[in-house]
Design brief:
Rossmann fold, nine-stranded mixed sheet, single chain, ThuA-like, Class_I_gatase-like, disordered N terminus
Length: 283
């Protein structure tokens, strides 16, 4: 009997040994060699291309300089890419290929080819955000599609001086660009423009923010201040993927060309810009 028991245990021990070895093989390795490969960097959600000239008015130039620092930082924090250029001919040909949103920081296209390229880009579903002087003109008839149809503002009519903050009231609050924006907020310092066209009479124009009555008088020069009235500051055109913001003129010491304010001082105003870019790129 003892011999039979030992014989029976031999195959059993062999079976158990194989089971242990197989079990060890199934245990995942640990340590550096077994660490998962690092996750691939997420591709940028969209691409923004900012156009500027940087040649007219120290306050506008100062805004461009800080915008071209602020936008790359904001892009990195919000997973998009930002490039700036003073070559307005990139509005022609294939220069906007792969660009989701175009910015006009301190100017607008001047040549017929540039204007035609931009209009085609917008008609084909491109996104656009313009600031302050991007809408300035005293000759709207020279490009009626842009000034009267697209922007809806027509000619420059008046401005406030000197540059100041303004309390703005939000309108059309369901618009994605206004997500998280309170009913009133204080803007950064800017010079403010008014226009020859009544934006509210245009069914395609949706005003997103205007000067709150508590801001009056708006301006520090009694001869260049607003004392009452309706002054749209932020708006969109429902026929295009576009947003216009009237800010973009810093206070300046013109004797030394030193900026005395920053357009990006208002976190709420910055939120509008970021919301707006995401909305324009996602449509």
């Amino acid at each position: 009997m003892p011999t039979k028991t030992r014989l029976a245990q031999g195959p059993l021990r062999l079976f158990l040994l194989l089971a242990v070895l197989l079990g060890l093989a199934a245990v995942p390795a640990t340590g550096p060699a077994a660490s998962a490969a690092p996750a691939a960097k997420k591709a940028a959600d969209f691409k923004v291309l900012g156009f500027y000239s940087g040649t007219w008015d120290a306050a506008h130039i100062n805004f461009v300089q800080e915008a071209n620092k602020w936008f790359p930082q904001t892009a990195a924090a919000n997973n998009f890419t930002y490039e700036s250029t003073n070559n307005w001919n990139r509005l022609t040909g294939s220069g906007l290929q792969g660009v989701d949103v175009v910015l006009f920081l301190d100017d607008l296209p001047q040549s017929a080819a540039q204007r035609s390229g931009f209009e085609q880009y917008m008609r084909n579903g491109g996104g656009w955000m313009g600031f302050h002087v991007a809408a300035f003109t005293t000759g709207a008839s020279s490009w009626p599609w842009y000034h009267n149809t697209f922007l809806g503002s027509g000619n420059f009519k008046s401005n406030t001086w000197g540059p100041t903050t303004a309390k703005l009231k939000t309108e059309n609050t369901s618009h994605p660009a206004l997500a998280g924006i309170p009913s009133t907020f204080t803007s950064s310092v800017s010079e403010w423009y008014s226009w020859s066209n009544n934006l509210r009479s245009n069914p395609n124009i949706k005003v997103l923010a205007s000067v709150d009555q508590s801001s009056f008088p708006l301006g520090t020069d009694p001869n260049q201040s607003w004392y009452s009235g309706d002054y749209p500051i932020l708006w969109t055109n429902s026929g295009y993927k576009m947003l216009y913001a009237n800010f973009g003129h810093n206070a300046m010491d013109y004797n030394t060309n030193t900026g005395l304010s920053s357009t990006f001082d208002s976190a709420t105003q910055n939120r509008f810009v970021i919301n707006g870019l995401k909305w324009l790129a996602a449509q």
